[in-house]
């Protein structure tokens, strides 16, 4: 699981709340993390592999949105591998991990492993948060015809730059001036927790707003495409709305336990003695949500593939040939299209019709990008659009 408590556990003088959760059935907790991450890893890869029975089609270049969805899955896979490796070492070498708690020690490898594995997990899941934010921004810009495949470079710079900067800054403040004196006061811990949860809260607050505005813009595009709003177009707009809802639902399910757990642990930290009897229920709730985090955090990768593409089936095609893969978009990015130049509408009626058709084509491409991975929605778009009937 991904929690800033993993980094604070690397401090020999860790706080009592961190000690409480990290020492609660560590073998069971590590086993839960390994099991959940392994299942998610296998199912995520299965979802992304090409399947038998899918007829290969010649597809244009992938869009920026489809590239972002693929990168989210890759970050989840790498984060899951980090959880499996970290938990396996904890289970297989308990004496090695026990050296982390030693204040006077000469072997720095246990602490290096503790810090390195925790940073790996935090960095990759922080990147997932930033990529989800970029996906919401890109979806809105696509329907506004202000984004394209070229913008993926800017998304890379923002995502990896902010993820690395916040991760390094939080770790540096936590372990300043040395590992032996870290977690010695709130001035060390609070900035670390802020840099960890800032991107998570950004997705929770901003993404629903951007998705709502995107859905409204999609409705306007569908209405303006032919001047009418048919039943097929209404259904397509609903499917895009459901797609965004599934993404946010998975995110809330997988990470709400982290917010609850941190709130409970911070409350316990403010108490003079967390072992008092009146705090028994709060301690129990903190431990329960701690185990839930170990189950839900790694499962995010698989659940996201279900939200992105739906269930793609078990029949994997491992033959080495060029074919359509699940994350390919129905069309190239809107930003890569050549927009028509201004024309004199009094000169030629044929040119006016041609521009209208091109504009309709661009509108269809924007809609198909948002509904990629949804075959039924793409088929209805194909049948309802005279532009696609000529393909």
Descriptive account of the structure:
- There is one protein chain.
- It contains twelve helices and no strands.
- Residues 56-61, 321-358 and 375-391 have low confidence and may be disordered.
- It has helices at residues 5-8, 16-22, 26-48, 64-92, 94-98, 109-143, 152-174, 186-226, 231-269, 280-309, 349-370, 375-384.
- By secondary structure, the protein is mainly alpha-helical.
- The protein has one domain: Rhodopsin 7-helix transmembrane proteins (Rhopdopsin 7-helix transmembrane proteins, Up-down Bundle), CATH 1.20.1070.10.
- Helix content is 69%, strand content 0%.
- It comes from Corythaixoides concolor.
- The chain crosses the membrane at residues 28-49, 69-89, 109-133, 153-176, 196-215, 244-267, 287-311.
- Keywords: Cell membrane, G-protein coupled receptor, Glycoprotein, Lysosome, Membrane, Receptor, Transducer, Transmembrane, Transmembrane helix.
């Amino acid at each position: 699981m991904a929690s800033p408590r993993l980094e604070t556990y690397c401090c020999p003088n860790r706080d009592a709340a961190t000690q409480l959760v990290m020492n609660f059935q560590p073998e069971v907790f590590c086993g839960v993390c390994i099991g959940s991450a392994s299942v998610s890893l296998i199912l995520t890869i299965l979802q992304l592999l090409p399947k038998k029975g899918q007829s290969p089609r010649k597809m244009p270049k992938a869009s920026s949105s489809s590239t972002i969805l693929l990168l989210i899955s890759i970050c989840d896979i790498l984060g899951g591998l980090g959880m499996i490796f970290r938990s396996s070492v904890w289970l297989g070498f308990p004496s090695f991990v026990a050296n982390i708690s030693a204040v006077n020690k000469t072997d720095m490898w246990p602490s290096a492993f503790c810090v390195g594995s925790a940073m790996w997990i935090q960095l990759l899941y922080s990147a997932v948060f930033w990529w989800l934010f970029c996906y919401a921004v890109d979806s809105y810009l696509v329907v506004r015809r202000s984004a394209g495949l070229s913008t993926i470079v800017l998304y890379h710079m923002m995502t990896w730059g902010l993820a690395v900067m916040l991760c390094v800054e939080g770790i540096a403040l936590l372990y300043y001036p040395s590992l032996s004196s870290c977690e010695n006061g709130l001035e060390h811990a609070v900035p670390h927790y802020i840099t960890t949860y800032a991107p998570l809260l950004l997705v929770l607050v901003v993404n629903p707003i951007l998705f709502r505005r995107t859905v409204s813009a999609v409705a306007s595009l569908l209405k303006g495409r032919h001047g009418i709003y048919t039943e097929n177009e209404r259904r397509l707009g609903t499917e895009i709305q459901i797609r965004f809802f599934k993404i946010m639902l998975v995110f809330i399910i997988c990470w709400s336990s982290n917010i609850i757990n941190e709130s409970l642990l911070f409350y316990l930290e403010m108490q003079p003695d967390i072992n008092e009897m009146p705090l028994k229920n709060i301690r129990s709730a903190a431990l329960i949500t701690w185990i839930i985090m170990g189950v839900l955090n790694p499962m995010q990768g698989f659940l996201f593939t279900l939200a992105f593409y739906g269930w793609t089936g078990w029949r994997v095609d491992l033959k080495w040939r060029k074919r359509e893969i699940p994350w390919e978009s129905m069309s190239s990015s809107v930003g890569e299209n050549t927009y028509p130049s201004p024309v004199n509408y009094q000169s030629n009626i044929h040119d006016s019709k041609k521009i209208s058709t091109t504009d309709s084509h661009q509108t269809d491409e924007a809609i198909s990008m948002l509904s990629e991975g949804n075959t039924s929605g793409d088929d209805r778009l194909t049948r309802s659009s005279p532009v696609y009937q000529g393909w």
